[in-house]
Design brief:
The structure holds two protein chains of two kinds. Chain A is built from no helices and eleven strands. In chain A, 0% of the residues lie in helices and 51% in strands. In chain B, the strands form two sheets. In chain B, strands 2, 4, 5, 9, 10 and 11 form a six-stranded mixed beta sheet that branches. Chain B is globular and about 45 Å long. The chains are: A mainly beta, B mainly beta. The interface between A and B is medium-sized, with 30 and 25 residues.
């Protein structure tokens, strides 16, 4: 059963703590993405990776970090430097090439920081 | 700056009616325009997509109309059903920029029985 898994579904943290969100895919996709979703603002790109051991900042990378050590995995760390971390976080993956490809999304992780 | 502008923010339609959601863009390098459907607490799923070499694409009750000169595209849902109640996002990307998608702000559709 191919797809993208994100865990956990709900995550609660105290302010000042770093937290890592998991994203795994078994679609054999080269490219992976992290988005943040807030009410009324759509999806905003945090980081993306086209291949293993390489990633680029998106529009709102400040306060976040990622790694891409394996093709299947693209974890996102929300650091204490992120001023407004409470949000719904979505991971996506796609094929990589010269033309555009559909991005497949995971079920999301809702992070609440108090 | 919002690369893709979407309207309306919310929409209420009677069952059997037509739902219309509009998007506009500025970057003429965009060459792929997908629409995603998202149910509460779930990730978005691709509904239908179009490339600028055609002006319309239809899949079942869902149709994308594309106006290249006006830099606008819209989603039409015919015979809207309560099960269509969801949030819809338009997006755009350019093959020049590594499949980076730019999303609209979303439209919350409610179909009343």
């Amino acid at each position: 059963d191919g797809g993208i898994t994100q865990s956990p579904k709900y995550l609660f943290r105290k302010e000042g703590q770093n937290v890592t969100l998991s994203c795994e895919q078994n679609l054999n996709h080269d490219a992976m993405y992290w988005y943040r979703q807030d009410p009324g603002q759509g999806l905003r790109l945090i980081y993306y990776s086209q291949i293993v051991n390489d990633f680029q900042k998106g529009d709102i990378a400040e306060g976040y970090s990622v790694s891409r050590e394996k093709k299947e995995s693209f974890p996102l760390t929300v650091t204490s430097a992120q001023k407004n971390p409470t949000a719904f976080y979505l991971c996506a993956s796609s094929l990589r090439g010269l033309k555009n490809y559909e991005q497949y999304f995971g079920p999301g992780t809702r992070l609440t920081v108090t | 700056q919002q690369q893709v502008k979407q309207s309306p923010q919310s929409l209420i339609v009677q069952k059997g009616g037509i739902s219309i959601i509009n998007c506009a863009y500025e970057n003429t390098a965009f060459d792929y325009f997908p629409w995603y459907q998202q149910f509460p607490g779930k990730g978005p799923a691709l509904l239908i997509a179009i490339r600028p070499d055609v002006s319309e694409k239809k899949e079942g009750r869902f149709t994308i109309s594309f106006n290249k000169s006006a830099k606008q595209f819209s989603l039409h849902i015919m015979d809207s059903q309560p099960g269509d109640s969801a949030t819809y996002f338009c997006a755009a990307s350019s093959s020049n920029t590594g499949n980076q998608f730019y999303f609209g702000t979303g439209t919350s559709l409610t179909v009343i029985p």
